[in-house]
Every structure is written in C-alpha cells, then in structure tokens.
Amino acid sequence: MTDIRRPSATSRRSMLFGTAAASAALLAAGCTSNDSDDGGENTSADQAGVADDKPGKKVTVGFAGPQADHGWLNAITQQAKARAKKYEDVTLEATEGSNDNATQIGQIETLINKKVDVLVVLPADGKALTQVGLKAMRAGIPVVNLDRIFDSAQAYRCWIGGDNYGMGLNAGRFIGEQLKDKKGAKVVELAGQDNLELTRQRTQGFDDALKNYPNIKKVARQAAEFTVESGQEKMAQLLRAQSGFDALWNHDDDQGVGAERAIKQAGRDEFLMVGGAGSKRVMETIKGDKGVLKATVLYPPTMAASAIDLARALGQGKGVGGMAEFEIPASITLYSAVVTKENVDEYLPIGFT
User: Fold this and answer.
1) What family is this protein classified in (predicted)?
2) Quick check: 299 and 278 in contact, CB under 8 A?
3) Which domain CATH number covers 82?
4) In this structure, are residues 58 and 326 in contact, taking their beta carbons and an 8 Å threshold?
5) pTM score, two decimals?
6) CA-only gyration radius of the chain, Å
7) Tens digits of per-residue pLDDT, 28-48?
C-alpha cells in the first residue's frame, strides 16, 4: 500500500475532535510553561494568551450555513452546535440555514445587526456571499469562513476547510497502490456537481495521482448531483457503458448510497470502490468488508467544531495553543485521510449520519 502520509493516532485525534485546546490541527494543546535557564522568563509563545477550556470572556458567535439537506451539511450544523454547548462562555446564534443566496445573506445581515462578536459562515455560494462577508468585517465583526471560500480574502479573518485536491489525490494513490501490479487496469469516476470548483479540484487530484501509475487508465467519468437518486442513475449508466473495470472512485458517500444500489442491481462485484467524505454508514460497511466498498477519503465535518473554537479564540483575543505566533492563522486546510478496514475503528467516532 502507498505511503499516504498522515499523522499519528494521537495527533490525528487532536486534529479531528479535540477540545479548544486540541482540535483541527490548530487548537492542539495549550502552551505549557517553559522556564528558561536564566531565571524562568517565559518564551514569547508563553506570554501570548492562548485558547483553552477554562471559562473566559463571554463571546456571542453567529453561525450561518446552507440548508442541512445532505448528510455532510447536517453534520456541519450539528458539530457547530455541539461544540458551542461545551463552552460556558459561548452563546451561539444559529440561523435555520438556506440554499438561497438572498435568504442566507439576509440571515447574516440579521446577525450583523444583532452585533454578534464573531461570525462563522459556510456560504451556499462563496462568490455570491462575498459582499456580506465584507460588510461584517467592515462592521468590526471578524468572520471565520468555513469551507466554501469567499472571493476576497478581505471578507474573512480566517478560512478553515477541507482539501478537495488532496481528497482526489489520496483516493488516486490508494487505488493506484491496490492496482499497481495489474496490467491494463481500468478505473471509473463518479464525480459530484461539475459546476462546483470543488468537484473539479477532486477530479484534478485524482487524475494527477493516476499519472504515477502508467498501467492504470481512467476509462469513464460521470458527474452526479450529490444525491442518492443521481448517484444511482449515473452509476447505472457507467455500469452499462463499461463491461468491466477494476476500481471506482465516488466523490460523495451520500450519492454513494444510490451508486451501491445500482451496483447491487447490476450484480457487479469485480472492482473495488472508494468513497468520499466519511459517513458512518460507509465506515461500517468498510469494517464489515463484505462488498466492493473498501475505503473512503475523509472530508471531515468536524471542521465546523474547529470553526467554533477559532471564533471563540478570536472573540477573546487569544491565539492558538501549540504555535509560537500570537494570532490564529489566516488559513487552515484539513487533511483528507484514507479510511480502510485497518484503521476504520479510529475514525468511526467522527463518521456522520
């Protein structure tokens, strides 16, 4: 199997679901006292205030995301709400969520008018919501831009999100290592929505990884819509068009429900399947090891919990534990780990439903 570099089990847990002192590769641990040899003066990092779990200045965080009509998006909302409840000093003002740009803009403007201390925004459309992000920043409300990025860096204080290119890259590496000794290997791809930049990035990463395996050829690709229905329809088309192939990469575990239905209906099992995002259902299927599904590449919704950690730190004027800088980073990209039968038990606790 390829050496898909990933952190140790301990640091990985810190990245994905630790507390404010241990979360998303940024709030990993509060700085401990580090006495110097000349009488105990603290280092600059120790002098900076860093976020920890102890109650501090009260912070009201406004949260606005798309409608939770998809397993991953629902997990985003639940992660944010659950994280906020863990802090005595955080009050969360959450909108209902909407996929309509005008509605979401109105919801964010309401939060701005309420004078929340910090905003966490996962825009339905980053480009369309850039102006309201700028409006919040100009009003003195720092914005944590979650995943789908605004068009202007001036519209947010910090961005945190997944690595779409890395997701495709690691899916391609995993498949490549499984098939590296097979002459004339064929793979197919069930992508997401082609009008989204994230879909194009996932495909580019996948294609770039396969360039390292000259024995493998991608023979077909279909774009679905991140829904069960579209996954089933487009997978059925792939199966009819390709009489035989060795591996399938599906961009999204929700549309993968439909894809698996089509595979079962067609009675096909000659290939291995790799999913995307990291649903609990898929992880349990991988653990059972009774079908074509052998792995999934994470796009962790725990990023929403980390966004709340960041918002709290910003509202309290604190920095990030485990880092020398006084300020939180401007950009944080999460790692897309590959979940297999060998490591699935480590990741099951963060699988989403």
Assistant:
1) Belongs to the bacterial solute-binding protein 2 family.
2) yes
3) 3.40.50.2300
4) no
5) 0.83
6) 21
7) 333 333 333 444 444 433 434
